Every structure is written in C-alpha cells, then in structure tokens.
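Researcher: Final request for today, and then I'll write up notes for the group meeting. The sequence and the SMILES for magnesium ion follow.
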Amino acid sequence: MPPTENGTAPAIEFRGVEKRFGDHTVLKGLDFTVSPGERVTLIGPSGSGKTTILRLIMTLESLTDGYIFVHGDPLTHEERGGKRVALPGKQVRANTKRIGMVFQHFNLFPNMTVIENLVEAPIHVLGLSRAEATEKARGLLAKVGLSDKETEHPSRLSGGQQQRVAIARALAMDPDILLLDEVTSALDPELVDDVLQVLRDIARETDITMLIVTHEMQFARDVSQRVMMFDGGVILEEGHPEDIFTHPTQERTRKFLSAVLD
Ligand SMILES: Nc1ncnc2c1ncn2[C@@H]1O[C@H](COP(=O)(O)OP(=O)(O)O)[C@@H](O)[C@H]1O
Ligand SMILES: [Mg+2]
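Model: Predicted protein-magnesium ion complex:
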C-alpha cells in the first residue's frame, strides 16, 4: 500500500489489472490511481472497458490478474510470499461496504417499495435498526425530491425518478466511493437534467470519491477534476476536462469527442 506524498493512500488503485472474458482480453496491465475525494470521468468508445472497470471495483466481476487497492487495502487479492492470493469472501464483502454503484438501468428491487429499496442494505449490511434506516432513507428521498413516492413501487415511477431512487439507495450506505455507469443514458432527454442536478449537489456537498462514466460532457466538466480516455482497455490520454475536451492530443480522442458532441 504505497502512501502518496501527503501520507494518504489513494482511494482507488489499479495495479497491473488484467481482465479476460474467455480468450478476449478486455483490460491488460491497467494501472491508475484516484485520490480521496477526486472525481474522475471515464470516456471512450463502446467496448473500451469502462463498465468492466467499475464492475471490478464493485466486485461484480473478478479480475484475471493484478490487484485493486481501496484506501490502501487490497480489495479481492493480495500478494503473500510472492504469490497472488484471493482474500476470504467475508473480507471482500467488508471491503465493498462503502462502495456504491448506480447503473444505467436503475436495478431497483421491483418487488419492493421505494423506501424498502432504501432500507434493505442499511439494515442487513450496516446493522441499522429499521427506525434508523427509515429516518435516513426519508432524508435522502427529500434530497432527491421524491418524498411523496415512499410507498410506490419502482414500476410506477418515471425512469428519472427511478434513477434518483437508485442514487438515494447508494447514498443510504454512506459510500466513500461512488461509481456511476452512464446513469442518464437510458433516460428520455427531458428527465436527464434532474438526475444530473442531484449528482452535482452530491459532488458539491460531499467529499465522496467518484468514478463517472458519462457522455454528458458539460456534466463531466462541472464535476470532475480529471478525464481518462479509454480505448481498447488502455488509457489513451488523461488530463483536466478543459484540456481533454478543448485540445485532446490524440486523434482517436478528437474523433470520439466530435461523435459524442454531435
Ligand atoms: N460478461 C461478459 N462476457 C463476455 N464479454 C464481456 C462481458 N462483459 C463485457 N464484455 C466485453 O468486454 C469489453 C468491454 O466491455 P465494457 O466494459 O462493457 O465496455 P464499455 O463499458 O466501455 O462499453 C467488450 O468487448 C464486451 O463485449
Ligand atoms: Mg459500459
């Protein structure tokens, strides 16, 4: 666990991360770090490995080789006596408790009401009482503007409302890392702004570390300090959003951006 100059470990570190699906290598020796509180936007063409990166951090996929560290601690594997050793499931689950993810297609529990969606994990994973979890959930629903939807089922909500519930559900676990995978891509255009505004508020009011996959370039500019451009599972270039968006150094970045901005 290499501390940075100021003595704090990175919030996220990929070290030599390789991911294969069958004989298809998606990520090959990927290295990067994200500082605590930093907001990083991942861009790149479809299939470049962005979702895979987030799913690896969420431990929804297993890495083929290499290591991921979260706040300096190994997430799923550690090196012991020169060998790469898988950590026990219990430890992996403890490591992911404070990592939240919001998906493109909401992924709410359809058979539960909105409030049940929000209290489920805080009760069963964090050990909150139902009363504590409910109070917290109500505060979060107010924050995302959905206090009146507490007892609705997700199917009765618009996509934008469902996504705001999904964001509230992620926040109910007090994440210190939040992973956002194209959270507005499945929404009708008129519903996008409310969702982005909720995320802007979170970015402004908290110091949650965020990894954001989005095609909303103005949003990326507003909330992130760094943009990483992926192609074929490698970082093609990275930098401040202003620099990457206005004068990318790579032709492939230029092409990608002009396609997205059209
Ligand atoms: N579960 C899976 N099984 C097989 N191939 C997969 C799976 N998930 C992703 N891939 C492949 O990995 C590559 C990267 O996918 P992904 O991470 O979803 O890219 P992106 O999010 O940048 O569009 C793609 O070629 C995709 O087909
Ligand atoms: Mg994706």
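Model: The mean pLDDT is 95. Residues 108-174 form one domain.
Researcher: Thanks, that's everything.
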